[in-house]
Every structure is written in structure tokens, then in C-alpha cells.
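Handover notes (outgoing to incoming on-call)

Open items:
1. DUF2987 domain-containing protein: sequence verified, structure written out, both below. Nothing else pending on this one.
2. Nothing else urgent.
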Amino acid sequence: MLCGPRTAAAQEEQDWIAYRDAYRQMIWFEKYGKPKQFLQSHFRIRPREKGTSLDGLRLNLNSKTIQLSLPLDALGRAVFPFSKAAYDDNAELTLNRNASQFRTAAWVSIVTRADGVYAAADLRTACEQLLAYQQYAGAAPGKVCVGVQFSFLRSDPAEVVFQPAGGASTLLAVREGAAFPADVQSGFRIVAYRFASFPENGRIVSSSVPLAIAALLE
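DUF2987 domain-containing protein C-alpha cells:
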């Protein structure tokens, strides 16, 4: 949780998050100067404990002059509004539930494609870009990229296939799990594409747009 002008203990009893604190976290990605064309950044809300649902959760930006609803996707991600007026007004990001049930953070993931076609080389580069950004932000020490993970809603019958430059295609295995390795929220259909298991040349084709693509760092 991001701590604002009140104490962390007081915030545990509230349903708000200081906009200024969220802004300071989100601006890191905006100012990051290294390659990031395969990356995207969201403001994310995720459960602290298993069993806490995101269903019906609503996020709003409120200040003296701004009242704005920020839609959340199935993974609790919202497009963050960079607003000088909201910053100057010391706005609050409010939830319709107790904020102590959730963690909030700037969240970087790999960009999804509408056509479902990903060059293998691009996914390797995307993973390396995400690792470089995390290390810039002080995370993932000693980690290396081993692959990427596609996630889908449980109701989505999507298939993910590796198509080599020559030869037969391979249908990647589907299992149930969390969209991102550190999440407690599970129940998604996930497909791991591990680089060492496939040739470097080829492409990955998804029959529908995934909720997210996460980097697998080990």
C-alpha cells in the first residue's frame, strides 16, 4: 500500500490511497530512458490474501475539482491519469472497499497484440526490457529471463501455439494459476512459453488476446 500524508496505521482503516504517492511511483516508468517499446505501465490493485475478490471493486480519483472513475480490468489494472490539478489538490484515489485488503503499485507488463501474433525474438526482447526496468527500479536482483507467461480468463478457450520457422507447430500446455507469479489471486488459464524449450526463430500465435503477458524471471 502507498502511504500518503497520514500515517500508515491510520490508512489501514481507510479506503483511500494518496494520489501524490501513486504519481511518484508511476512517473518512474514515464521517465525511464532505456528501451521499453514492448512494455506498458498501469496502476494496479491486487488482493493481499487469497479469497479476496476484485469483483465489483471500483477505483475513483477525487479532489476538490476532479471526480473521475478509473475502470479496472480483470487483473485490477487501471490507466493512470497524470494530472497536475489532481497533484496540486492533493487528490485521493478511493476504493469502494477497505483499502487494507489490497496492495497498490505501479505495475509493468508486456504489451499484448490484437492480432495474437508475437515474434519469438520480440518476446525475448520484451522479457529483457522488463527485467532491465525492474532492476532499474531496485527489484529482481540476480534474476534472468527464462520465458513469458500468457494469462486468460477461465472462460476463455484460447490456445497458444509455437510456430517454428520450419517444421510442425507445437500447442503449448494450459494450466490454472495466477496471471503474475507473485499474485495470490489465481483461477486464470495460463500458458508458459519457456525460451529454452523452443528454437529462437519462430513465432507464438494466440487465438485470442490475453489478459496479460508476464515475464518469467528466475
